[in-house]
């Protein structure tokens, strides 16, 4: 029995198309499908497209971000504003204040002493905008016993005293905070739904069993309606759960800017993952990290599905290597809209053409997928699409005009499957999952000015949530 018929939709640029859905799948696509007793949605000429997939974000960090105090632009731009924001923050049930989005233009290099001058009354931890570092004030440092700890990410002064700055140590720090479970994901799922996102790739590295179980439970109980592809599952993890809506993808490896790994150690790690039958997803945001990875792959070889996360700076001389190795670039041009000024100021001018490449990679035959890196970048895919089109920094300056792509090309990079980012885009066809987005207008009209306002309804297995009327 047919569950739903969407009538008078634009599909693949053709107007007046009906789409019939049953048991979570599309069963027929064509004009003037026979009448049934199924529920009917009149698309009123709006485009019906596959649901968007964000190929790189961090679900639990997004949920935690919503309960945190912003510590950077645009709301906080100097030390006085930061002190005020920390002072006004309500804190959690244990009295801790969690800040996010800090950048050095606000109050310089924050350490425990600097944070104490801003707010010493309660334990405070502030995350750098990159997501790579936490900065703790004196009370927080004492609470987690930073002076007694031996984690390699703990920054120390010449005298051996911890500075309060901790690099790439999220799990270690979480284990030392007052006990709390992973944050709920229902608000994240609702927001993603409003933007037309029906699937996400969670790029959080080294997911602990509790975090993975929380994601699976959220998917199973419907509070997170999106399909989820995990990069942080352990190398020997299974690839199925629950009802196939949570899958395991390549294994995430972070090449941290703060300390690149030894070449042999990285080679051993990638070889081990490949030998287990999994590809790798390698975090590369600098020239040095990319060149290191390519050198290692010369030794260990590549596996189908190997991908590079971010590719924030890709020298032109490496593009042919990327194509030849079959590596996919999962990138985030949305950062240009929020941080483009910082990049133009802080990155060597000779490297400006290499920032968040899109057009040159696509032209060379390198698979490219788009994503948000939320919460560190805007989670709105339509804003990312617009940024890929105009590449404008906040001041209006264009970052890499030759790397612009069309809105249609950018949207396509959100329509590729979780397991094949940058590959063949999904289409509205019989037999496909009925994870769909209904727009208020034909696609060509929507793409003249990409905006989430164009999303009328997002359908999960043919069930819409919600239908919005302009």
From TrEMBL:
Q: Pfam families, from UniProt? A: Amidohydro_3
- Ranges for domain Amidohydrolase come to 39-463
MF terms from GO for this chain are: hydrolase activity, acting on carbon-nitrogen (but not peptide) bonds
Q: Which PANTHER family match?
A: IMIDAZOLONEPROPIONASE, PROTEIN LONG AFTER FAR-RED 3
Q: What is this protein called?
A: Amidohydrolase 3 domain-containing protein
What is the source species?
A: Rhodococcus wratislaviensis (Tsukamurella wratislaviensis)
Organismal lineage: Bacteria, Bacillati, Actinomycetota, Actinomycetes, Mycobacteriales
């Amino acid at each position: 029995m047919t569950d739903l018929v969407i009538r008078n939709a634009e599909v693949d640029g053709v107007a007046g198309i009906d789409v019939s859905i049953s048991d979570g799948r599309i069963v027929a696509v064509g004009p003037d499908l026979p009448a049934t007793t199924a529920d009917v949605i009149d698309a009123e000429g709006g485009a019906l497209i596959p649901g968007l997939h964000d190929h790189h974000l961090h679900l639990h960090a997004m949920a935690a971000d919503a309960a945190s105090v912003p510590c950077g632009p645009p709301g906080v731009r100097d030390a006085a504003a930061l002190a005020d924001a920390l002072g006004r923050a309500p804190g959690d049930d244990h009295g801790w204040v969690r800040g996010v989005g800090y950048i050095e233009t606000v109050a310089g290099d924050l350490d425990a002493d600097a944070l104490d001058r801003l707010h010493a009354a309660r334990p405070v931890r502030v995350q750098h905008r990159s997501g790579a570092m936490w900065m703790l004030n004196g009370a927080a440092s004492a609470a987690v016993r930073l002076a007694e700890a031996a984690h390699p990410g703990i920054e120390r002064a010449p005298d051996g005293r911890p500075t309060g700055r901790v690099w790439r140590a999220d799990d270690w720090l979480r284990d030392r905070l007052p006990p709390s479970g992973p944050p709920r994901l229902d608000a994240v799922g609702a927001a993603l739904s409003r933007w037309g996102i029906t699937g996400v790739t969670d790029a959080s590295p080294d997911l602990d069993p509790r975090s993975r179980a929380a994601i699976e439970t959220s998917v199973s109980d419907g509070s997170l309606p999106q399909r989820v592809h995990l990069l942080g599952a352990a190398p020997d993890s299974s690839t199925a759960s629950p009802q196939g809506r949570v899958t395991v993808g390549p294994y995430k490896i972070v090449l941290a800017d703060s300390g690149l790994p030894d070449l042999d150690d990285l080679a051993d790690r990638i070889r081990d993952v490949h030998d287990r039958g999994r590809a790798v997803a390698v975090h590369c945001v600098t020239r040095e990290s990319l060149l290191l990875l390519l050198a290692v792959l010369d030794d260990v070889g590549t596996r189908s599905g190997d991908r590079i996360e971010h590719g924030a700076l890709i020298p032109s001389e490496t593009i042919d290597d990327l194509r030849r190795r079959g590596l996919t670039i999962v990138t985030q041009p949305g950062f240009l809209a929020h941080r483009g000024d910082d990049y133009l100021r802080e990155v060597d001018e000779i490297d400006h053409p290499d920032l968040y490449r899109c057009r040159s990679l696509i032209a060379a035959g390198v698979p490219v997928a788009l994503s948000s890196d939320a919460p560190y970048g805007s989670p709105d895919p339509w804003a990312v699409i617009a940024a890929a089109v105009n590449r404008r920094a906040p001041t209006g300056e264009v970052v890499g005009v030759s790397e612009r792509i069309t809105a249609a090309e950018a949207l396509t990079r959100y329509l590729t499957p979780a397991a094949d980012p940058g590959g063949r885009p999904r289409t509205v066809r019989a037999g496909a999952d009925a994870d769909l987005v209904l727009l208020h207008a034909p696609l060509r009209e929507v793409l003249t000015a990409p905006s989430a306002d164009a999303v009328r309804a997002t359908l999960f297995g043919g069930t819409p949530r919600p239908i919005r009327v302009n």
